């Protein structure tokens, strides 16, 4: 049996360098604000935040793998659990829950009730259509792509739009199998 | 201690701010990119100093306020104080943090340190690296300017990049292979 992945990121979060969350929250807020000024179109801001998240995700996965000690996940279900319980905890200090699986186990929802990105945040009416936390979906998409999973990540619920929680739908589009540059049987013992 | 997040979260955002504005929107206009990055920092500094001074009496003079930035404010953000504060008594203050966290993980090719001739291509590479590091300084400068202006002290803040993060060779031992980076930040605040 494969070794069991850690079911919680508490210990890792306690061991990494941490900083004041207000600095993080306000910096993110200032970025969104500046992008709204520079790009004007809310749609463009959503796209930019997603792109920034993607760039972060493809780097953050390395830190995640190095520090979390998780081994290869057996299926997408385990992957989702690890993101929710270990990934979110290790970086943001909060835990998400996983629900709404579809029948073939290819799509699920990550539910976040506590989200440090939105402390102090209220959206004015002019920002309708803005996915304020869109950086998060980009991070997940980027990180999973680096471990061979093409995904589509979309917002289903958003507390800043009056919902009771944040819900991200993560849909596995394609699992790219890893290809090695050699075949095992081309080598023989010497 | 209030809520915390992993340091990588803040580091990642800073990297993305700089690359979004320098390589994306304003790839050929570094001075415009710099202004945007500084503006983001200003906003953050302005809001943070509002929060951190909520329960304090008014500062009696400029020096008091600047000392607050060096001690309490800096400690909230970086868990350490500014190491050195100087003034020329004509409205310029120089703040120095000898081990500035946001620069500590940035490296510049140490081989370029040895060359001094200006035509040397490695010196040019160093200049390019200096420019890249320089872009990362607009955010902390913006934070300081935002914080001070919220305390009623309008000023201009610039940072010195003559001291790039450099590999401190005395600190490399066999036990600790990671070169220890000495990353000083020197910020000049000119009160207007």
UniProtKB/TrEMBL annotation, chain A:
InterPro entries hit by this protein: Bet3, NO_sig/Golgi_transp_ligand-bd, TRAPP_component
GO CC terms: endoplasmic reticulum; Golgi apparatus; TRAPP complex
Signal peptide: none
Biological process annotations from GO: Golgi vesicle transport
UniProt xrefs under Pfam families: TRAPP
Keyword Endoplasmic reticulum: yes
Protein name: Trafficking protein particle complex subunit
Originating organism: Nyssa sinensis
Organism classification: Eukaryota, Viridiplantae, Streptophyta, Embryophyta, Tracheophyta
UniProtKB/TrEMBL annotation, chain B:
SUPFAM superfamilies named in the record: Ligand-binding domain in the NO signalling and Golgi transport
Any one annotated GO CC term: cis-Golgi network
GO BP terms: endoplasmic reticulum to Golgi vesicle-mediated transport
Family to which this protein belongs: Belongs to the TRAPP small subunits family. BET3 subfamily.
Name by which UniProt lists this protein: Trafficking protein particle complex subunit 6B
